[in-house]
Amino acid sequence: MEKPAILGGKPVSKEKIPFAKVIIREEEKKAVEEILREGSLAGGEYIKKFEKAFAEFIGAKHAISISNGTDALFLSYLALGISFGAKVLTTPISFVATASTIIHAGAIPFFADVLNDANLDPKSVQEMFRKQKFDAITVVHMYGKPVEMDEIKEIARENNAFIIEDAAHAHGAEYKGTKVGLLGDIAAFSLYPTKIIAAGGWGGVIVTNSDEIAEKLILLRAHGELRHKIGPEGAYEYEILGYNMRMSHIEAAIAYYQLRRINEFISCRRKLAKMLSDLLRDIPGIAIPEEPPYVKHVYYIYSILIDEKTIGWTRDEFVKALNAEGIEARKGYHKPLHQQPLFKMINDPTINHFAKINKYPNYAEFKLPNAERIAKSTVWLPMHPYLTEEQIELIAKAIHKLVQWRRK
Predict the structure, then answer these.
(1) How many other C-beta atoms can be found within 10 angstroms of the C-beta atom of residue 14?
(2) What is the pTM of this model?
(3) Per-residue pLDDT for 223 more than 80?
(4) Distance between CA atoms of 220 and 216, rounded to whole angstroms?
(5) Chain centre to alpha carbon of residue 197
(6) Within 10 Å of residue 85's Cβ, how many Cβ atoms?
(7) What is the pLDDT of residues 113-151, one digit of tens each?
(8) Burial (0-12, 13-18, 19+ Cβ within 10 Å), 22
(9) 116 and 305 in contact (C-beta within 8 Å)?
């Protein structure tokens, strides 16, 4: 039996298999060179081209390009009128921006528990609504798998609450034949370099079917200046308090050409994920991602859950051991948001200046057992369109090797 590399054995992979990888092809390079020659860095045709193409891809009436995914979430709240006095229910298993943008908008985040796939648990959401009223629910389609939206939409409808989709992981994912982005009132996507598609640095986009919301977003992202609403005659006239949260021309050009290959990227991810699932399916103590027949998972992240007692490794040991084997695995969101130092101290004005205005819950008292359990047992494995089948086999081989070593 092979000894694990972390204990002095030979690594499974001679070269590191990267967790994520971004490839910029000739189309993107030529577009950037063209923009640099023209000097049109702050605005140009690719912004409109990207917005039109993204809206068509999702099937939405409007796509509004934004500086990044975090700003896209923030402006989504403001566009819906969610601000001071509002309460928003969301997930504790996510990147901090899912909840911090609620605070920046002036509202107060609350957390419901999650299912084993790390998506919001509709039963927990319903239980939270029985305790108090919420103005909105922010769902995160975790790892590229859509949330169970039928139940969430029913809860929102019964309680007159908005649904915001944090779709940073889920470009092209589908729920019962409908693309993510059309499952709520508004949706925010990230174009960070490791996402399903990338822009030239950061980048984000908001989609909506509402003309009124789209018009407000166009003003919010550009200082509230009327020029963006009525044309040149509105230059240096300001209608609302806005921000500088626009996408650059270079970012839009790269995002536009990445978008043209999104179906290829998704197809590759799904093919590789299926192959990896088939290789891991029968390993005791390893729970692989599942895909119900009514869902299209795009596998932004391939996340497994481990049973420490069964495999004989703690989660942190297992991640370190995989890295030693040449597999760039990660711990993922290993501490739920309600247990983060930020949220434990959120009522301290030196930590959060909104605490001078708002009174936040004692998040440390939140009991979200499934979120707390899976945060300690989640392992993220490499998943991107540029993995080879040989690399997928090596990832699986490393996991088999480690589990067999401790179970010998």
Answers:
(1) 8
(2) 0.96
(3) yes
(4) 6
(5) 12
(6) 11
(7) 999 999 999 999 999 999 999 999 999 999 999 999 999
(8) middle
(9) yes
> In a 10 Å sphere around its CB, with 0-12 CB exposed, 13-18 middle and 19+ buried, how is residue 69 labelled?
buried
Beta strands in 49-170 (DSSP E): 62-66, 87-90, 108-111, 136-140, 162-166
Reading the block at residue 146, the tokens are 């859509």
List Cα–Cα distances, 241 to 100, 219, 249, in angstroms.
20, 9, 24
Element (H, E) at 228: helix 227-230
Q: Evaluate whether 392 touches 338 at the Cβ level (below 8 Å).
A: no
Burial class (CB in 10 A: 0-12, 13-18, 19+), 142: buried
Task: List, for residues 167-216, the tens digit of each pLDDT value.
Answer: 999 999 999 999 999 999 999 999 999 999 999 778 999 999 999 999 99
C-alpha to C-alpha distance for 226 and 243, rounded to whole angstroms: 13
Structure tokens belonging to residue 390: 């040989």
Task: Determine the Cα–Cα distance for residues 49 and 273; give it in Å rounded to an integer.
Answer: 31
- pLDDT at site 300: 98
Core vs surface per residue 200-237: b (16+ CB within 10 A) or e: bebbbbbbbbbeebbebbbbbbbbbbbbbbeeeeeeee
CB 143 within 8 A of CB 169: yes
Stated as kind and residue range, the H or E segment containing 268 is helix 262-280
What structural domains and CATH numbers belong to the chain?
Answer: 5-17+263-333+376-406 (3.90.1150.10), 26-261 (3.40.640.10)
Could you please report the per-residue DSSP string of 12-37?
S-SS-B-S------HHHHHHHHHHHH
Q: Give residue 28's pLDDT band: very low, low, confident or very high (50, 70, 90).
A: very high
Q: 213: alpha, beta or left, given left = phi > 0 and alpha = psi -120 to 50? A: alpha
- Integer angstrom CA distances of residue 396 from 16, 236, 329, 331, 393: 14, 59, 12, 17, 5
CA distance 89 to 102: 10
Strand partners, 190: 204
Amino acid, single-letter form, for residue 345: M
d(CA 197, CA 262): 7
217-231, 233-247, 316-330 — which one is most confidently predicted on average? 316-330
